[in-house]
Amino acid sequence: MFAKYLLEGFNSIVHAVKYKRSEFKDLAISGCRSSAHTTQRLAFSHATSLAKAATQKTIKPAVITVGDELVLGEREHNNNEKWMIKMLTSRGAAPRLCTQVGDRVDDIASIIAFLKKSDYWPIFVSGGLGGTHDDKTREGVATSLNVPCERNEECWNILDIKYKNLPAGFNEQRQRMSSLPRGCTLIRNPVGAPGFSIDGIYAYPGFPRMLHPMMEETVNSLFPDIVDFTTLDVHLETVEAAIAKEVEEFSERWQGVGSIGIYPSNASFGMVKLRLRYPADNEDVRADFDAMVKDMQCRLGVEA
After folding, report:
1. What does the pLDDT look like over 46-55, one tens digit per residue?
2. What are the residues whose beta carbons fall under 8 Å from the beta carbon of 213, sequence distance 6 or more?
3. Pick from 222, 249, 273: which residue ends a domain?
4. Which positions fall inside the MoaB/Mog domain (predicted)?
5. What does DSSP assign to residue 266?
6. How far apart are CA 23 and CA 64, in angstroms?
7. In total, how many domains does the chain have?
8. Distances in Å between the alpha carbon of 294 and those of 231, 236, 287, 300?
9. Same domain, 236 and 279
10. Which of 58, 66, 113, 141 could form a disulfide with 128 if both were Cys (CB 3.0 to 4.6 A apart)?
């Protein structure tokens, strides 16, 4: 069962980015009060729209991470994508598709339009929401939906309060972050500029410190009743072909409930790994899996 309380913050490791300490200093008391009121209103508005959307859609999640550094192979590990996949999978909403796209409006728009046409929902997007020349996610999402980007007054006010007393102030680059697809709903950010949602698309900054609490809040609101999933690995001294039929039959029995994979070892021939993914509270799936493995061991004369 999902946690029912919204996270107020989440301290996670920040990969490849160092934050200037001055960017996150406390605001003046008056600014904090105004920002807190706006944040409460944002959380309620966003949670209400999410709950309504979740009752009307078939779950078919997709994950998009945005950045030239990703598609050009300049970053060794796409940690945001990995985290997003694991988080969704643990909630029982494993992604059906994951992809990376560069910092170009047309490319971002094309992949989102394809996903929308193919009935993917929800679509989670990370990265490209800053105020620099290569932050194109806002325009890409708007183009995919054939709506304009325009100044969002609520976002403008949040950013004005957050940045006006900081170094460089609320300059032109930071003001760009308030230009959002028309009709979108803001997603509150505990430490930075808001993300946004529109028509089943949920867009977040690429900084892990921001992405994690924002997406967790969204997913908890979308799928409050989904049971946590867990995994179980079993290693067998055999080859795929010797157990493939039994694994396939198991998969068919539990289609739509859990899933099973069979993976040969990269280290040595004649070793395979079975991986069961199933709802943590479903004892029947686990019992059937255990029985299947025991039958395999008896038939093949091997141990797990």
Report:
1. 555 555 555 5
2. 7, 8, 9, 10, 190
3. 222
4. 62-226
5. S
6. 27
7. 2
8. 18, 11, 11, 10
9. yes
10. 66
